[in-house]
Specification:
Elements lengths: L3 H9 L6 H25 L4 H27 L6 H14 L4 H14 L15 E2 H6 L2 H10 L2 H14 L11 H25 L1 H27 L14 H8 L3 E2 L2 H6 L6 H6 L5 H10 L9 E2 H4 L7 E3 L4 E3 L1 H7 L6
Length: 335
């Protein structure tokens, strides 16, 4: 698996975006999303339950918009850097995410994913090893348990990330990145003002809040399950290998076809980590035409639910485990 020239050769032919296909994907994603906003607004006159039903569909399109934003950050949606930047900025406004900041952090994620000694560089989900958890004070263990709980991970966490954290730049950010954060904030504020002017503040909040909650939970879950499964790859830096981190540390999330469409094929995450410059609409093709790159055990929608109980990396047995494992091993009393 560490035969770098081999996998580079296999993925190279898929790393050229098709401009017409990218434009069509942009149209069949953003336009329906805006139409759904209008339908949700009109549905408020009928029943809020209908509005909430439409929220699920609108959230799916917002996730797809985020995948387009994600591809632009990798420079894989258009051949033109300028086009990627413009579309990346605009889709970043729709997803409340600053282009330059997220691009830098996500690039670090790709460069350090699965590296135990660089977990703090790529915006990873906070992951402790079993030994680190056992050696932590009670306050840290309680905080860690709270952080990894579904309530925080899938509701409070995404809302804080997209609505609050993304509004500020890091202290170490360069001038261009800071300015991009400010520009994104202006764009987000202008879009909110426009919608409030058209439909009023109450209707706006009744639509925007549930969309952000559902889409945020879906986005974080996808990121979680793609790198938090039982047989995932983690290794210390001196032994860390990029290709192994991609193929063994990134899942093949074998979703139903319609969910692959809404999630921009990001379930083929092993392929994406091997070739970040591959457009989302070519990931499936690369996977199917190169079976040697496929992980031994894909994760299905049903089996992925088991990942929600995995909390710690067991270095001794090289697998993710849950807190129940600690109790069964009687290594420490339950917190």
């Amino acid at each position: 698996m560490s035969d770098i020239p081999r996998w580079q050769e296999l993925t190279a032919g898929y790393q050229r975006p098709d401009t017409l296909r990218s434009l069509w994907q942009l149209a069949n994603t953003v336009i329906p999303y805006l139409i759904l906003w209008y339908l949700m607004y009109r549905s408020l006159e009928i029943s809020y339950w209908l509005t909430l039903a439409l929220t699920v569909l609108a959230s799916g399109f917002l996730v797809r918009i985020f995948i387009i934003f994600h591809d632009c950050c990798h420079g894989s949606f258009f051949q033109s850097k300028r086009a990627n930047r413009i579309v990346g900025f605009l889709t970043g406004v729709l997803t409340f995410t600053p282009y330059d900041r997220w691009r830098r952090e996500h690039s670090a994620h790709h460069a350090t994913s699965g590296d135990l000694d660089r977990r703090d560089l790529g915006g990873e989900i906070w992951t402790l090893t079993v030994d680190e958890y056992l050696a932590s004070p009670l306050s840290t263990r309680l905080t860690y348990r709270l952080y990894r709980s579904p309530l925080v991970m899938l509701t409070i966490g995404p809302s804080f990330l997209f609505l609050v954290k993304h509004r500020f730049s890091n202290r170490e950010a360069r001038r261009r990145e800071r300015h991009n954060v400010y520009a994104t904030n202006v764009g987000v504020f202008a879009f909110i003002v426009l919608l409030v002017a058209l439909m009023g503040p109450r209707a706006y909040l009744m639509i925007q809040i549930p969309i952000m909650i559902v889409a945020g939970a879906a986005a974080v879950w996808l990121f979680y399950v793609q790198h938090q499964f039982e047989a995932v790859y983690w290794e210390h830096h001196d032994k860390w290998d990029y290709s192994r981190a991609a193929l063994e540390g990134s899942s093949f999330y074998d979703l139903p076809r319609i969910l692959h469409w809404f999630t921009g094929n990001i379930g083929y995450h092993h392929i994406h980590h091997l070739g970040p410059r591959i457009p989302n609409y070519l990931l499936r093709r690369c996977h199917e035409e190169n079976p040697t790159l496929a992980p031994a055990s894909p994760i299905t929608l049903l089996s992925s639910l088991q990942s929600s109980r995995l909390r710690l990396w067991d270095e001794e047995h090289q697998r993710m485990v849950g807190f129940r494992y600690l109790r069964e091993q009687q290594k420490t009393p339950a917190v």
